[in-house]
Amino acid sequence: MKQPPTNEQLVEASEVLNKITTELSRHIIGQEMLISRLVFALCAKGHILLEGVPGLAKTRSIKMLASSIDSTFKRIQFTPDLLPSDITGNLVFNPKESSYIVKKGPVFANFVLADEINRAPAKVQSALLEAMQEKQVTIGDTTYELPKPFFVLATQNPIEQEGTYPLPEAQIDRFLIKTVITYPTLQEELKIIDLLEDEPEEITAKVVAHTKDIEKIQNITEQVYIDPKLKEYIAAIVQATRTPGNYGLNELTQTVQFGSSPRGTLAFMKVSKIAALLAGRNYVIPEDIREVRHDVLRHRLILSYEAEAEGVTTEWAIDKIFEKIPVP
């Protein structure tokens, strides 16, 4: 059994994460949820699916995150004519040498923005999802490891769905969390105007950490203690998404068509540990699990057609489950 992080390790990790969060907050106004979830996914060695209308600083956020950690960043604009090799790379023939050379694709970066991932066909989406899961890419006969840390922020536009390719339900849960962001408030929008009015055209965040710091925090996160009773609590929640009738949630039996896979259980474990770490604790409490419930489960529940027609949301179903399952 791993020993929980020491107080010294907690302080060290908190200082680094606070520096990153503070630096991002200087450049991104009114998206505290986005900033915190980026940190959650990064430290848990996961990837994030982000849904929001254009212009809400999705591209800016990951670009600033990459520059604040002094790491490499690549942006992929997904389009219907994209090919898997446009992402992973390909073998290119060199006529002078009469040989093939490897040309690595944009996925070979620490931070990858997959912009409007639902605009590319399934085979392209699968190429990225496979790279996310395996942390490696095969080009020709050779397999190449992706850089560490490797972090993907994929975005989806909830409007203009014509001509899009929805992510396969069987693969979408490869994303550790799915976060939905909304418009800023009036006061936040005024701050955005002031910020961008005086900002130079090319702007990068100040380097406040390095990739080695992130790898260290990722290892510390894995050491955060979670009590067996909380593991049972998480397992019960995930089980309730699959067989709600067994847990007295009869109103969900016709609402939830498919529940979460075991990846949801593991995601709860990982993300709740980050929540504890950011709160300065080396152990998880029930509130940590509750805090991340929507981000972990909203893309892992598939509602029935009847439920969608009636305007039922996955967030409503998730809240019903958490209300019913007793807290240890």
Any idea of the CATH class of the largest domain? Answer: Alpha Beta
Helical fraction equals 40-55%
In the CATH hierarchy, what is the architecture of the largest domain at level 2? 3-Layer(aba) Sandwich
Give the oligomeric state of the chains in this entry, treating copies of one chain as homo and distinct chains as hetero: single chain
User: Helix and strand string, N-terminal first?
Assistant: HHEHEHEEEHEEEHEHHHEHHHEHH
Tally the structural domains.
Answer: 2
Main sheet strand line-up: 2-5-8-1-9
Please tally the helical runs, counting DSSP H or I stretches of 4 or more residues: 14
CATH topology grouping of the largest domain: Rossmann fold
Terminal CA distance: 22 Å
Q: Which segments are poorly predicted (pLDDT under 50) over 5 or more consecutive residues?
A: none
Nearest-integer average pLDDT: 88
Radius of gyration: 21 Å
**Percent of residues in beta strands?**
5-15%
Question: Can you describe what's shown?
Answer:
The chain has 328 residues and is α/β, with parallel strands linked by helices. It has two domains: 7-198 and 207-217, Rossmann fold; 224-324, Helicase, Ruva Protein, domain 3 (Orthogonal Bundle). The chain is built from 14 helices and eleven strands.
Outline of this structure?
Helix 1 (7-27) packs across helix 8. The protein contains 14 helices and eleven strands. It starts with 6 loop residues before the first helix and ends with a helix.
Which structural traits does this protein have?
328 residues; alpha/beta; Rossmann fold; Helicase, Ruva Protein, domain 3; 5-stranded parallel sheet; 14 helices; globular
